[in-house]
Specification:
- By secondary structure, the chain is α+β, with helices and mostly antiparallel strands.
- Helix content is 32%, strand content 19%.
- The protein has helices at residues 10-20, 60-72, and strands spanning 3-7, 24-28, 43-44, 50-51.
- Strands 1-2 form a two-stranded parallel ribbon.
- The mean pLDDT is 93.
C-alpha cells in the first residue's frame, strides 16, 4: 500500500521521506496552491462570505502533479 503525505517544502519532503521509509510517498506543494481572485472581491457577500478560490496560473502544473499523486496513492 502506498500512502501519500503532502508537505510545503521540497526539503521537508526529502527529510520526512527518510523517516517514513517504504510504503510512503512524500510530495511538496511548494507553497499555496489556491488563492482568492485578484481582480474581484473573492467572497460571496450574499452567501455568508463564501470564498471563491482559484488556482493561480503559476500553480496549475503543481496541482496536476499533486492530483495525480493522490490518485495513485491508496491512503
Amino acid at each position: 500500500m502506498t500512502r501519500l503525505m503532502i508537505v510545503e517544502s521540497a526539503a521537508k519532503a526529502k527529510k520526512i521521506a527518510q523517516f517514513l521509509g517504504e510504503g510512503w510517498r512524500v510530495e511538496a506543494c511548494l507553497g499555496h496552491v489556491r488563492d482568492l481572485p485578484v481582480h474581484t472581491l473573492g467572497v460571496d457577500v450574499a452567501r455568508s462570505f463564501k470564498p471563491a478560490y482559484m488556482i493561480p496560473s503559476n500553480r496549475v502544473n503543481g496541482v496536476k502533479r499533486l492530483t495525480k499523486a493522490m490518485r495513485d496513492a491508496e491512503a
